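TL;DR need structure tokens for one chain.
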Amino acid sequence: MHGPIADHNEGTDLDTIADDELEVTLGVDTHLDQHAAAVLDPIGRLLGATSVPATVAGCEQLLTWASSFGLVTRAGVEGTGCYGAAVARFLQAAGVHVVEVTRATRVEGRHRGKSDPLDAQAAAMAVLAGRSAAVPKDRSGIVESIRLLRVARQTAVKARSQAVIQLKAILVSAPEPLRQLRALNTRELIKRCASARPGRDRDPVTVTRRVLRSIARRYGDLDAEIHALEAELDELVTLAAPRLLAEHSVGRETAAKLLTVAGDNPERLRSHAAFAALCGASPVEASSGKTARHRLNRGGDRQANNALYTIAMVRMQHHPETKAYVTRRTEEGKTRREIRRCLMRNLARRLYPLLIADLQDAKTIPLLT
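>> reply
TL;DR here they are.
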């Protein structure tokens, strides 16, 4: 729907304002190849809906189309960390305040139906009504580089493990001369298989030797790749998180997880309570009637939750102050699980200012060498 607002609103104050003076809200339902979009006026009426290709030209077309209804000040975008990353960056560069919108629940979908235009309209309405206010992660700094290195390392570690599993599985049913290799440990097995010279015959024994050599050399290549990635990851995490790494029980991997969940823009984390909720370490009230209680928060980023869990477990074993705390709380009747939850919440409070300070300083780290 283009042009003036619908005729049945004639006589209202909105009709005396030109379209290009209205502040309109854009909603975008993102997909791999195409994005659906909807524009709402200040009181939530649908002004128009369209779809554009998920390309740079499509982003330009989207903003031009949305601007024909008025001044686009805010945009709700689904999947800003995936399909919507490019359109979110484009809108932010154009001066539009982008809000990350989560997918509607199934209950909401049953009431209003399900389609891409409806999802785009719901995204805009969530921003307009104030139900969504999350700031998308900025993926233009050193933290994004750390995230990408972690992804590459994780996939390489998984492939290396699969290579060992496959190697040992082949030996289970291998011809008898080769089954004896099962007695070797992993390091010796890889070394023996990688240095084999099986020849070019086609009999099962020779072919099995060639296959074992191929997998063993693949393992060696992956091992070298993992060590190179870990060296680069160590360097970047040391640069980006010196305060976190100075804390007891915080290592490279846990610091990298906490940095990744925060992103390159620390303003996303408004308080230590918000950070705890993002890590799934905040208690959730579950009171009813005369019963007042809290339950475990099962939401949040599971990688960040795992980081706090790991730090808490190590501190419970090796940190004197934490060990004294555990002893005191145990005497009060708390279970080990309850104590660990309390520790994770306290860790979120303690590490939050250090993380924010590290992220602020990380903005000044040069990315080009």
